[in-house]
Amino acid sequence: xxxxxxxxxxxxxxxxxxxxxxxxxxxxxxxxxxxxxxxxxxxxxxxxxxxxxxxxxxxxxxxxxxxxxxxxxxxxxxxxxxxxxxxxxxxxxxxxxxxxxxxxxxxxxxxxxxxxxxxxxxxxxxxxxxxxxxxxxxxxxxxxxxxxxxxxxxxxxxxxxxxxxxxxxxxxxxxxxxxxxxxxxxxxxxxxxxxxxxxxxxxxxxxxxxxxxxxxxxxxxxxxxxxxxxxxxxxxxxxxxxxxxxxxxxxxxxxxxxxxxxxxxxxxxxxxxxxxxxxxxxxxxxxxxxxxxxxxxxxxxx
Length: 302
Prior knowledge:
By secondary structure, the protein is α+β, with helices and mostly antiparallel strands. It is about 20% helix and about 25% strand. Helix 9 (about 285-295) links the parallel strand 15 (about 280) and strand 16 (about 300).
């Protein structure tokens, strides 16, 4: 059997095909395979051929695996002559000294993965041919077989005030106001979500599981740059600090609430909010509560 991977497509015995390929078509060439279902994956194996693959949906072969080093006897008609652009696969991939186990090549919309043996001299033991990206693949699939593509959210820009922006003396007090206006009253929109932000951020990889026990610098900077329009001042009636506040978990995603990361040092900012009547705080200093009560604010520790 002859197989040639080219710019035009996949030639099998001089007939041109394209991955993904309908199973009914490939079965006419290779015969009926054995189907192995594992969770969402459907693997097909053609006995005594050295051929196998993966099926997406129910009808399309998306990946073809060719095993050159097989211990089982291969049917004579499946002694495969594999070429890439008309060049024998052994010549196409000239194995280097530091090549180890797998070598991948992109080839006109196909990904070729060569499996390298560990023996000396090194030899190609198998070849995997995978079809084009999912966006292109979906053009070939029936509607019920479409593969869901994860949408990358847009990187949010810090909200800017339409009018005069409030100026805060204490950043952690500002965060408390953001909690109320963004996550409770939902007047500051869009809501900042650290997981969407991490997906959209391209300057570096943000690993939340690894970094989430400390401030995520880019998230912290986002909230520092965010402006709160003074028109919202009258909407603030009560504010509550709580270890479960959304704003905190979007800056330190894995924060346990046991340290002073978000403690407020200065309470001058209460004067920005004429209707503020209640405050629940992490604060432990009773003198602070007394001063707040003198301003007509019912302030209590959490």
